[in-house]
Structure formats: structure tokens, C-alpha cells
Design brief:
Length: about 220
């Protein structure tokens, strides 16, 4: 089985399911990433008081449901720094660079999410992306070359293909999970399993082909209803 994960680095509910993704991998399930570019191009967002208030209200829900941390450096540092731009393209390009260098892109996504929500770092900044790559054991100069190459075209193609895949499977936002086995594939809603990674893995393994697919939707601010 493969678990196709249509995500965005700035999607709060993608952070919410990060323990579920980790559990699926630990159980031996292959996870395939598809970066959807929620805040790419004209959808990029500058940090503002309105954005901060809106995002924090959803972060509180995520914290209550999952126990995941949202640090002071994030709440009162990053989310108050109006020089920061939330742009999905650089971190998605970084994930492609890590993959091109034979690193672990799924693990790197988890590191990106923790850097954003726990360290309060700008994951659109090349300096942050390089630092995280170095922490993952990759050479900084080689990573920056691979990142620059990804930014020249592959990341745009990847985002376009991810959005097309999201549409093809009937998804409407991020996160969207698709479980595939052989010639069958269906969407799988992870939300009932927040805080219960073992139950999530068991549900994936036992999923019947005829089970009704569902999805969860994030809007352009990275928040979900």
C-alpha cells in the first residue's frame, strides 16, 4: 500500500496529522508527498495582525485535539513579524531538493513543520531551509544548488501536478490522503484519528475498498473549518 499525501508546508491541519503520518511510516507504509502550493505565487501572504488572529484561533483547536506544541517564538515572534512572507514554493522546492539528494523528504517535511510552529522560523527563507538540510546530514552548498535547480522549474511542475492530482481524486484542499493498493485508490479522512496514531494505522490497514471517501479542506490562510 501507498499513502499519497497532498499537503502544504503552511497548512496547520497538515501539522495536526504529522503524528499520524509518522505512525504510518513506522508501520512500513510508503508515504508519497504531493506539495499543493497553497500559498504559492499570487496566493503568498504577508504576516499581518488579521492573519495572526485568524490562524491562532485554528491553532488552538489543533493544540486541543492533538497536544502538538505552538511555541511563544511562533505566536509572538514569527506571527508578529510583518516582514515575513508565507510562500509555499521555497519549502516545497526544498523537499524536492532533499529527495533529489537521496534524503528523506517526508522526515524533512516534519522538520519544516516543527521549525515553523515550534522554532518560529521562516520556512520560506533559504537560510532556514539550508540549516534544516544540514541538520538532516546534507551538505549545504549541494543542497542550495539542488534547491536553486528546483526553483527554476521543477517545483512549478510539481505543484501543478499535485493540484491536478487533488482534483482527480475529488479533493478540495489540504491535507488530502489517498490510499492506493494495486489498481484501487480512495481518499481517507485522517481527522477522526487526531491524537490516535495507532488507531489511524489500524484503520488504514483494515480499510475496505468500498469505504466512502472523504476529505478535509484548508483555505489559503492554512486553516481548516
Amino acid at each position: 500500500m501507498r499513502l499519497h499525501y497532498i499537503f502544504d508546508p503552511y497548512c496547520g491541519w497538515c501539522y495536526a496529522i504529522s503524528p499520524l503520518i509518522a505512525a504510518a511510516r513506522a508501520a512500513g507504509l510508503e508515504v508519497v508527498l504531493h506539495g499543493g502550493g497553497m500559498l504559492s505565487g499570487q496566493a503568498r501572504l504577508a504576516v499581518s495582525p488579521a492573519l495572526r488572529d485568524y490562524v491562532l484561533s485554528h491553532d488552538e483547536r489543533i493544540a486541543s485535539l492533538t497536544g502538538l506544541p505552538f511555541s511563544e517564538a511562533y505566536r509572538d515572534g514569527l506571527l508578529k513579524d510583518q516582514s515575513v512572507i508565507f510562500d509555499s514554493t521555497p519549502p516545497i522546492a526544498a523537499i524536492l531538493a532533499v529527495e533529489a539528494m537521496q534524503g528523506d523528504p517526508v522526515a524533512y517535511l516534519g522538520v519544516l513543520q516543527r521549525a515553523h510552529y515550534v522554532r518560529g522560523a521562516s520556512i520560506s527563507a533559504l537560510s532556514t531551509l539550508t540549516d534544516l538540510a544540514v541538520r538532516a546530514g546534507l551538505a549545504p552548498a549541494a543542497f542550495e544548488r539542488a534547491h536553486a535547480e528546483a526553483m527554476l522549474g521543477p517545483v512549478a511542475q510539481h505543484v501543478a501536478e499535485s493540484r491536478a492530482y487533488l482534483q482527480a481524486v475529488g479533493g478540495q484542499g489540504f491535507p488530502c490522503l489517498v490510499l492506493s493498493q494495486g489498481d484501487t485508490a480512495q481518499r481517507f479522512d485522517p481527522m477522526p484519528w487526531l491524537g490516535n496514531p495507532d488507531g489511524f494505522v489500524a484503520a488504514l490497514v483494515e480499510l475496505a475498498p468500498e469505504a466512502a471517501p472523504t476529505s478535509t479542506v484548508c483555505d489559503l490562510s492554512g486553516a481548516c473549518p
